[in-house]
Amino acid sequence: MERILSANWTVSGAHTRPVYEQRGGYQSLRKALSMDGAAIIDEVKRSNLRGRGGAGFPTGIKWGFLPRESDVPKYLAINADEGEPGTFKDRFIMELDPHRLLEGCLIAGWTLGLRAAYIYIRGEMKLGAQRLDAAIDELYAANLLGKRILGRDGFDFDIYVHRGAGAYVCGEETAMIESLEGKAGQPRLKPPFPAVVGLFGCPTVVNNVETIACLPTILERGGDWFAAAGSDKNGGPKLVQISGAVRRPGCYEAPSGVSLRDFIFSDEYGGGMRDGRKLKAVIPGGSSCPPLSADELDVGMDFDQMREKGTMFGTGGVIVIPDDVCLVRMAARTAHFYHHESCGQCTPCREGTGWVAKILDAIEAGHAKREDLDLLLEICDNVEGNTICPLGDAMAMPIRGYLKKFRADFEEHIAHGACRFPAW
User: Fold this and answer.
1) 80 and 101 inside one domain
2) Could you please report the per-residue DSSP string of 185-230?
3) Phi, psi for 23 (deg, rounded to 5)
4) 259 contacts 331 by C-beta, under 8 angstroms
5) What pTM does this model have?
6) Max CA pair span of the chain
7) Residue 208 falls within a domain, yes or no?
8) Could you report the per-residue pLDDT of 313-369, keeping only the tens digit for each?
9) Is residue 6 part of a domain?
10) Please, are residues 111 and 32 in contact by the beta-carbon 8 Å criterion?
11) Which end of the chain is more exposed for a tag (fewer CB within 10 A), N or C?
12) Which of 264, 295, 322 is the C-terminal boundary of a domain?
């Protein structure tokens, strides 16, 4: 397929403004300046662009929640934290094609009447932050940022890069806003929602890096083209990552709705299992998504089809698990991660994630009893849906999935002692 989002990744110097502009960059911004905001929002709605940060909410509808008129500034907050295990797409955009993201920010700024954008990048992504800072300096020098952008009266827009401290919970939009304001990264109670009371108490739209990076293409080729490049209600190409026991791990641009089986086994993408190993389970969208078994791979990779299978597409971070990996240990690692990353604000999450991790450790070591499996399910049910943010759900949903689909593995540990599998 034609590469769109990743077209510049192998082009030397594409992270600089001159090369980006030679390849058509900032023409979509100029086109946007000839349109009014309502027309651009309609184009984004027609594109069926859905949020690429995990939730899959329609972008055009989300933009519509922002007030048209406001007595205070309105802001764009870009979620570039990318803390979901199994996910590594946004860093490629920021490192290899930062101007695509910045052009998308400018288009959103003009469309929604925003005053500034804040890019909240995970602190460990040093190269991405450096590339963004350098690209922003290039734009100020070219009058593509600051006052009267491209001579347009009333279009004053700035972009700032903020490096976070590496907390998974700051991928949640209100925790990210709290961190941007210099406070502890803890989610806020909603309502009010960020579109009404967000960054610095002002209306704020929060979008993922990949979501905003799609805007130049939507303006260039039209919303109808973008919608047709995907599946039903899931527009455009999608950056999908694959890791684990496959021959060709990496980040690939694929049409929304491509078959999960084809994505894993096709030579165009994952290339099949490595070293003759057999597939046992697949996490389809990052570690917070319930796993699929080896006989559930004939499903399209989009938000709706994955939901029908009882899982989620999430960030598109596919993790392929072979049959010689201990799923009990995998579940325990997952629980420990979410326990470590819990901000501790909500009792069900703070206590439940740790409790689940301890029980799974006992099962993995062969020190548990059969009743512990039902206790795990009960704890997951009590955590999910009872916290301020979805971090507790992100632990409960995959653990429940492991237990329900691979219960025999857990029962074997209880009946026969500690794990017989090698560590992955």
Assistant:
1) yes
2) --PPPSSSPTTTS-GGGS-EEEEEHHHHHTHHHHHHH-HHHHHHTS
3) -95, 20
4) no
5) 0.93
6) 74
7) yes
8) 989 999 999 999 999 999 999 999 999 999 999 999 999 999 999 999 999 888 889
9) no
10) yes
11) N
12) 322
